[in-house]
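Hi P.,

Sorry for the delay on this. The queue was packed all week, but I finally got your sequence through. Input first:
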Amino acid sequence: MHNPQLNKEGELQHLLTIEGLPKAVITRILDTASSFVSIGDREVKKVPLLRGKSVFNLFFENSTRTRTTFEIASKRLSADVINLNISASSASKGESLLDTIDNLSAMHADMFVVRHAQSGAPYLIARHLSETGQSHVHVVNAGDGRHAHPTQGLLDMYTIRHYKKDFTQLRVAIVGDILHSRVARSDIHALTTLGVPEVRAIAPRTLLPGGLEQMGVRVFTDMNEGLKDVDVVIMLRLQNERMSGALLPSAQEFFKSYGLTPERLARARPDAIVMHPGPMNRGVEIDSAVADGAQAVILPQVTFGIAVRMAVMSILAGN
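Then the structure:
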């Protein structure tokens, strides 16, 4: 089956999901990102790779953090950035998703960065562009439904590689609401593709999707057991809107069993790193002592996220 993300030459045409992406493509993105991070890991360079190109941020779902990092990344590449908060405009007038795309394409868009509550929306847009002879326009999935969040998965891989160097010796635990997490899905596909021998999922039964074992994941419902000897802990955000449902008793109860405290972290390897896609709920999934502690790499993740998004966009634009 043809991978809609790759062109006939096997080069990245769109970034829709990490699932099915060849290891070489993922590695190229990570290598390109590292060329944008300057010495000291705190700054991201400005380069003219997308000068004259127009990047449209199409956010049909709110996300200040992801939209801001895409906007900064586009500007560091010297692109023209147009932010559209669509929930407030055409979509509410009843215009279809693809009509919106056609109208924006007519304004000479070169790239669409799309976040949408429906799984598969970025695929739909990519297919439509190809069918209407607009394959020069690229689509980046900035999160679709429960399905995928590929740039978050890639920036997580960049962070792990930065601190741990080699993927093939690691135990990585992903903790929290795995059932609803597109980040967890993207991370699992990326980790297995890059050769991580042991990926663990730690969550209450009600927040574990089926089929994890088939993806090569070891499942734990006991946090202490699951964290034993891991090298990397990826905490997921617990969405407050899920706390009121039957899946979880309360935020306090969740923290009591699955919150990352210094005591629990001590079960991991002494040099384990702690990651979080943000925004964090302190005292729900993570203790402040851990979030602000020496093992947390949550702020560097944000910096690396800009470099990774620059890498994706510059590769798509043919650099």
